[in-house]
Recover the amino acids of this structure.
């Protein structure tokens, strides 16, 4: 690479680019270069400005100041079309595919004019798929394909346009462990042909796996550029968050000694003429226990949480909490019984963005007469409570009166966690509690969850992040298509085995279960920073 | 961004908008053969020269505050109550019926209280039906509330021709209510009744309900994020019905202040545009109950000023609507420009970073 660098200018030079949105400075003097045949990883916490700078390169955002050069020539990229003309393609975190159309139709969308020769196009698309061994059927309907395949369709869209600079935004977020490996192989072979890749991620393990050079971003600025050969994961973590991570410790737990608090007995949720959302669930959560639920997202996790929070009523079966039948109670009654719920999508389900922090802190308790006498709210006491929580959870907020929407994602989540932990005096449901958070905040939320476990609460932790499930759980249930594939003690299975269960392989068909048992899942699934 | 600076900017932009709106309106006056400068002096001197005309502003303002509040309340639940006019008429019927039947049978103040209660209950019921249809049948509240006004108008005409009709059975109107059940006048030399006080108190009460009670809190949560509301044990369907019932009650209250405070009888086509003005007032005030008072005052002033203008010059009566329209338009535009100037100010803070 060094050689090439001298011979020709870098493929892409981002030169002191700044981007200011109305309220935030998203990028500040960012300079990044990308050479031919190179994978540059953009590593950083969420909100570090990785996606923003790439969206500028792709013409979706416009920079406030700075310059972008492609092949040494200054370019003014104002639309994605300009970017495509320069051979730049970007695969967004959320795919832009038309589900009702076939793979071919999706790929040629926007690239053809007039009468379309479908047979010829299909053949071309199929060849493309075969060349990279994607195994995608050109005639298949995109909506029927699993997420991993859909991503390949997105990649094929880029390849079809003769892309030589591919930007991938968090491409592994939706993939199962096995699919991630295939993706990495593709990236290596793609750059081997003289193409270049920007790989946006916040996962250090992937960076070490695939990148040639690593650009670390923090608070909208580049905080370091290192080549993979000369860096340790621990150093990366420090560059990313600015300080070392605390190592979490989890005391051992013997659930047999503790009383059962939550008991779910043969519960099925099924709507008429539809596949069951949840099928014959049976489990117990003891006092002081965290049960993790691992699974690819969209396999019934949301339904499970809503069921246990009273937002969904089971078709059959019973649920008891501390011996009381709560099967048919509604949400308000669940809240009154001390059940907390940190929903995965906090913007939609967990907070009211335009209301103040205080107003959000009383969201779940408006019926509990905790803050009101005969319906008259004492904002003084709510504000006092909120300020306590602000200092207790070190939420970065100027005051209890600011709107929660003006806080950063991590601080919003801290506030929501603070509220739910307080509301859930007996049982707390965490659904993806750290999704979209930066490492510092993740660490904090994890510590809080473990703290609640020590306090003797029962905790259900749903996460698609295997490392999270492994770090926190006492027992792990694997969910697939609304069914539990099995419940295991943490450490009983490896990441790979859990991955296969998540993909729907029955437990009996797992290869060599005992051999890997003592290795434990935890070491394998940990994020780099925690090793 | 401090609160006081924001408030100052709001006042500045709103005053500027009102000024520009009137200015543009005056530029149209030569087309009607009226000199703008004359029109301006006529309007100012005409309105502020005698007490009685000034009082008229408060009289016009009273029902506008209430219909503005009615729209604001449902707006906080992210609902649109376009039917305040209908709820107002039902309130009128309630007030006039009680006042006619009970006057001189029981003490006046008691009749007033009952008339007020009847007006609010009538309005609340009308509103509740809209909320109920929205909640239970998923009907579009915008359409239902709009059409409900027409239903009520025909109901009103029928009532005025039958059980409420005057003893002479000549016109579609009721008898005048007895003086004992009039709302007392509060300013000598004017017709200003206690109604304006009731309206201002209503605005304060609405503010208190919205921002100081769990009921209002739940209405606002439902309006801003229905999904979060549902997962917080709040039943949005219930909140819809509550919000519409309260909104209807406020509009109904306007019926009471108009019947017992001002007109002292009910007739067809009575105050037929206060419902739609109320929407404009609420939007101008960004649905803030206290802001509604001032927006309604402005509308009241323009109405009286316009009337003076059309009486003492050649300007047609429609000059009132012209002024209201322009002022409204400019105030709405000022929201946009205020927002843009704020954004620009934010960008100007160099490229400094917030910590």
């Amino acid at each position: 690479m060094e050689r090439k660098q001298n011979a020709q200018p870098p493929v892409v030079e981002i030169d002191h680019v700044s981007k200011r949105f109305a309220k935030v400075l998203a990028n500040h003097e960012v300079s990044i270069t990308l050479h031919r045949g190179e994978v540059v990883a953009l590593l950083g916490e969420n909100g570090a400005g990785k996606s923003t700078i790439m969206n500028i390169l792709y013409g979706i955002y416009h920079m406030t100041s700075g310059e972008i050069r492609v092949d040494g020539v200054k370019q003014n990229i104002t639309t994605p079309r300009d970017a495509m003309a320069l051979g730049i393609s970007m695969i967004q975190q959320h795919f832009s595919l038309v589900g009702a159309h076939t793979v071919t139709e999706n790929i040629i969308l926007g690239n053809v004019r007039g009468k379309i020769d479908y047979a010829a196009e299909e053949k071309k698309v199929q060849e493309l798929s075969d060349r990279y061994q994607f195994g995608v059927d050109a005639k298949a309907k995109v909506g029927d394909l699993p997420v991993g395949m859909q991503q390949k369709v997105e990649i094929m869209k880029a390849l079809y346009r003769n892309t030589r600079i591919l930007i991938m935004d968090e491409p592994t977020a939706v993939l199962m462990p096995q699919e991630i490996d295939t993706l990495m192989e593709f990236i290596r072979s793609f750059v081997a042909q003289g193409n270049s890749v920007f790989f946006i991620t916040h996962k250090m393990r992937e960076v070490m796996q695939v990148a040639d050079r690593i650009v670390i971003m923090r608070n909208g600025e580049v905080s370091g550029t290192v080549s993979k050969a000369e860096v340790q994961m621990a150093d990366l973590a420090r560059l990313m968050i600015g300080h070392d991570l605390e190592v979490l410790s989890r005391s051992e737990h013997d659930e047999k000694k503790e009383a059962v608090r939550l008991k779910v007995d043969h519960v099925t949720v099924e709507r008429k003429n539809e596949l069951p959302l949840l099928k014959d669930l049976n489990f117990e959560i003891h006092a002081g226990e965290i049960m993790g639920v691992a699974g690819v997202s969209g396999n019934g996790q949301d339904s499970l949480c809503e069921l246990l929070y009273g937002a969904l009523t089971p078709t059959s079966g019973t649920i008891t909490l501390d011996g009381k039948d709560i099967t048919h109670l509604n949400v308000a009654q669940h809240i009154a019984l001390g059940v907390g719920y940190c929903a995965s999508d906090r913007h939609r389900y967990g907070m009211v963005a335009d209301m103040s922090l205080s107003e959000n802190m009383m969201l779940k308790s408006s019926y509990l007469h905790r803050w009101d006498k005969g319906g008259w709210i004492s904002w003084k006491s709510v504000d006092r409570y909120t300020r306590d929580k602000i200092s207790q959870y070190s939420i970065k907020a100027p005051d209890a009166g600011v709107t929660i929407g003006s806080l950063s994602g991590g601080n919003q989540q801290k506030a929501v966690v603070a509220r739910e932990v307080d509301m859930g005096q007996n049982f707390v449901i965490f659904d993806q509690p750290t999704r979209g958070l930066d490492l510092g905040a993740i660490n904090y939320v994890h510590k809080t969850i473990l703290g609640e476990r020590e306090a003797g609460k029962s905790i259900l932790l749903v996460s698609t992040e295997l490392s999270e499930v492994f770090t926190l759980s006492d027992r792990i249930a694997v969910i697939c298509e609304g069914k539990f594939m099995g419940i295991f003690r943490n450490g009983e299975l490896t990441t790979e085995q859990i991955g296969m269960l998540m993909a729907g392989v029955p437990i009996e068909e797992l290869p060599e279960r005992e051999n890997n048992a003592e290795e434990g899942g935890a070491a394998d699934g940990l994020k780099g920073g925690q090793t | 961004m401090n609160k006081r600076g924001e408030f100052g900017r709001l006042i500045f932009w709103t005053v500027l908008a009102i000024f520009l709106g009137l200015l543009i309106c005056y530029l149209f006056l030569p087309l009607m053969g009226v000199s703008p400068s004359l029109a301006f002096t006529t309007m100012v001197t005409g309105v502020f020269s005698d007490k009685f005309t000034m009082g008229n502003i408060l009289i016009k303002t009273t029902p506008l505050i209430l219909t503005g509040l009615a729209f604001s309340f449902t707006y906080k639940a992210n609902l649109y109550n376009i039917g305040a006019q209908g709820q107002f008429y039902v309130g009128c019927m309630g007030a006039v019926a009680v006042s006619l039947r009970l006057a001189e049978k029981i003490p006046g103040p008691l009749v007033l209280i009952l008339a007020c209660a009847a007006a609010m209950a009538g309005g609340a019921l009308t509103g509740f039906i809209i909320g109920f249809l929205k909640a239970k049948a998923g009907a579009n509240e915008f359409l239902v509330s709009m059409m409900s006004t027409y239903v009520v108008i025909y109901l009103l005409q029928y009532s005025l021709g039958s059980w409420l009709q005057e003893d002479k059975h000549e016109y579609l109107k009721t008898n005048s209510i007895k003086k004992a059940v009039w709302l007392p006048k509060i300013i000598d030399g004017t017709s200003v009744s206690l109604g304006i006080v009731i309206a201002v108190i209503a605005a304060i009460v609405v503010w208190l309900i919205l921002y100081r009670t769990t009921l209002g809190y739940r209405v606002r949560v439902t309006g801003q994020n229905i999904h979060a509301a549902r997962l917080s044990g709040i039943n949005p369907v219930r909140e819809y019905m509550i919000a519409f019932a309260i909104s209807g009650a406020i509009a109904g209250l306007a019926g009471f202040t108009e019947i017992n405070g001002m007109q002292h009888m009910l007739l067809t086509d009575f105050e037929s545009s206060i419902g739609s003005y109320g929407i404009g007032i609420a939007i101008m005030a960004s649905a803030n109950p206290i802001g509604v008072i001032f927006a309604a005052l402005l509308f009241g002033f323009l109405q009286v000023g316009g009337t003076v203008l059309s009486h003492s010059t050649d300007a047609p009566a429609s000059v009132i609507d012209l002024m209201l329209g322009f002022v409204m338009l400019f105030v709405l535009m000022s929201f946009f420009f205020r927002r843009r100037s704020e954004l620009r100010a934010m960008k100007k803070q160099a490229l400094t970073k917030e910590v």
In short: Chain B touches chain A at residues 212-215, 217-218, 220-221, 224-225, 227-228, 230-234, 343, 346-347, 351-354 (CB under 8 Å). Chain B is about 75% helix and 0% strand. Chain B has a mean pLDDT of 89.
